[in-house]
Amino acid sequence: MATTITSECINCGACEPECPNTAIYAGGVPWELDGATGPAIAQDIYFIVPSKCTECVGFFDHEACAAVCPVDCCIPDPANVESESVLLARARKLHPDETFPDDPPSRFRKPAPATGAVASGAEAAANG
Question: Which structural domain range is residue 39 located in?
Answer without folding.
Answer: 3-127
